[in-house]
Amino acid sequence: MNIPRVVEIKRIIEESDSVKTFIFNWKIQDEKPGQFMMVWNFFDEKPMSISLIDPINDEIGISIKKVGEFTESVHSLNVGDEIGLRGPYGNGFEIKGNNILVIGGGIGMAPLMALVDEAKGLGIKVDVICAALSENELLFRDRIKESGASILTCTDDGSHGFCGFPTELANQILKESSYDMIATCGPEIMMKGVFDLVDHYKIPAQFSLERYMKCAMGLCGQCCVDNTGWRVCVEGPVFTTDEVRLITEFAKYRRDASGIKQQL
Ligand SMILES: Cc1cc2nc3c(=O)[nH]c(=O)nc-3n(C[C@H](O)[C@H](O)[C@H](O)COP(=O)(O)OP(=O)(O)OC[C@H]3O[C@@H](n4cnc5c(N)ncnc54)[C@H](O)[C@@H]3O)c2cc1C
């Protein structure tokens, strides 16, 4: 499991101007939504959430946003090209109850898409707030509809759906509806807004956090969070509201590759 397996890219889906989903043959065992893979381009290795878990066709998918050197190199690959994958790592989401709200911002929709698929497969009612800066960056709209979940889109510039932040839309919804659970992933400032909402409305929630990762196996300590020392790669990346409350750096700062604090 901790040694990369070299696999061929089976399909590539262009999700938006900056995001592509890469699909691989992969014997599905106990992979869970919210877990991630370490992706190796034979020079470097980076964490990527699992966005598709298909046990029928034994396929796994990762959705990558082009932001820098590593992600650009993966985006330049074609069907049939090889890449290394090791994992899955991390704890993943735990579905609780029969009625869940999913709030995803930008590429944060990647792990949540796998969660939506799993929840719908279990017959659970799922409402999704799918948010992005603008319409051309909204992810997985067709997949969400095909899954049977209901989708509300939300853009910062108002080019599609609700104009504003997903937390404003969630607040409007939560005034009238209740949920057994909320799952969220996206920019940490957005998740802080979700944290405040779920604290106010007393709804159990799970948050998927990102921290700079190196080994992903809990050895190097790179992704430890203050003040708990939890390793995001092992104890996370998914944390409950009460756990997030103890993470004093949440929505304040994170550490770069050399451990220096970067304000959020
Ligand atoms: C658990 C987890 C799941 C993730 N899932 C996804 C996903 O599904 N799709 C996706 O597009 N991105 C995901 N990311 C983020 C992704 O790993 C980084 O965007 C990517 O490594 C950037 O590499 P780069 O060289 O292209 O860009 P850089 O220019 O090197 O970095 C761009 C940003 O990515 C961060 N980053 C760089 N290297 C790492 C690293 N080793 N670990 C964590 N963050 C890093 C930097 O701090 C910076 O904020 C995830 C990160 C984590 C921790």
Portion in helices:
10-25%
Q: Span between N and C termini?
A: 33 Å
The major beta sheet can be summarized as: 7 strands, antiparallel
Overall morphology: globular
CATH architecture of the largest domain: 3-Layer(aba) Sandwich
Mean pLDDT: 97
SS strand fraction: 25-35%
Bound molecules: flavin-adenine dinucleotide
**CATH topology of the largest domain, which one?**
Rossmann fold
Helix-strand makeup class: alpha/beta
Order of SSEs, N→C? EEEEEEHEEHEHEEHEHEEEEHEE
Quick one: how many beta strands? 18
Output the strand order for the largest sheet: 1-7-4-5-6-3-2
Q: So how many helices?
A: 6
The CATH C-level name of the largest domain is Alpha Beta
Count of discrete domains: 3
Low-confidence stretches: none
CATH superfamily of the largest domain: Nucleotide-binding domain of ferredoxin-NADP reductase (FNR) module
Task: Please explain how this structure is put together.
With 264 residues, the protein is α/β, with parallel strands linked by helices. The chain has three domains: 5-89, Translation factors (Elongation Factor Tu (Ef-tu), domain 3); 93-208, Rossmann fold, CATH 3.40.50; 209-264, no CATH class. The chain has six helices and 18 strands. The protein has a seven-stranded antiparallel beta sheet. Helix 4 packs parallel to helix 5. The radius of gyration is 17 Å and the shape is globular. The chain starts with a strand and ends with a strand. The model has no long low-confidence stretch (mean pLDDT 97). Bound molecules: flavin-adenine dinucleotide. Flavin-adenine dinucleotide (FAD) binds at residues 36, 46-49, 63-65, 67-71, 107, 110, 210-213, 237.
